[in-house]
Amino acid sequence: MPTADVFAFVRSALPPAPARVLEIGAGRGELAADLLAAGYDVVAIDPAGGPPPVRQLALLDVDGAAGSYDAAIAVVSLHHVNPLAESVARLGHLVGSGGRLIVDEFDVDRFDERAAHWWIEQGQVQRRERPQNTPAFAEELRGHLHPLGRLADALAPWFDVSVPVRGAYLHRWDLDPGLRDAEEALIAAGRLPATGARFVAVRHY
């Protein structure tokens, strides 16, 4: 489930309701349900499906006329999207000129051995199974997830991409969200990388 700060970030960046919003990678639909309750017209999609209002649909397969949506949201989902260029082109078609793409991401290029070790260690403390080979795990992730730079490059033909705001992410990834303060303190001390990134991209006019 998205954390409270994710809800706040998305709501602060959206145009006013009843804007039409496409949520990409909606998971179990908690964010979509929150926005629907706030008066937004939301279409929530996820290739894996989910409970209503989530539709089992990949971004590339979303139908709609040019400029059908006032905004789009992608919370920790764009790094999974394939084929990336074609899917982003579809998104560029769907979001109207001046429309916003609100992105909350995990930057896998910053997930180094220190980050992998801390994440595995915290999971073990919570008695959950975790991969044991830290370098191999970090390398495996980098092998199949799109890093933030690649996402920005793919979006650039369609969107003006702002400079990302970096922050903590690992506590949100199957860990206790209460670890946020500890993660942020380690980032501030230079002992962990900031693997989270948020930005708002604006569709070209």
Question: What features would you describe in this structure?
Answer:
The protein is globular. It contains seven helices and eight strands; from the N terminus they run H-E-H-E-E-E-H-E-H-H-H-E-E-H-E. Strands 1, 2, 3, 4, 5, 6, 7 and 8 form an eight-stranded mixed beta sheet that branches. With 205 residues, it is an alpha/beta fold. It has one domain (4-109, 145-173, 194-203): Rossmann fold, CATH 3.40.50. It is 34% helix and 23% strand.
What is the molecular shape? globular
How many strands? 8
Give the C-level CATH assignment: Alpha Beta
CATH topology: Rossmann fold
**Can you write the helix and strand succession as a string?**
HEHEEEHEHHHEEHE
Topology:
Blueprint (H helix, E strand, L loop, with lengths): L3 H10 L6 E5 L5 H8 L3 E6 L7 E3 L12 E7 L8 H11 E12 L6 H13 L8 H11 L3 H8 L3 E3 L3 E3 L12 H9 L7 E8 L2
Parallel strand pairs: 1-2, 1-4, 2-3, 4-5
Antiparallel strand pairs: 5-8, 6-8, 7-8
Question: Quick recap of the structure?
Answer:
By secondary structure, this protein is an alpha/beta fold. It has helices at residues 4-13, 30-37, 84-94, 113-125, 134-144, 148-155, 180-188, and strands spanning 20-24, 41-46, 54-56, 69-75, 95-106, 159-161, 165-167, 196-203. The model has no long low-confidence stretch (mean pLDDT 94).
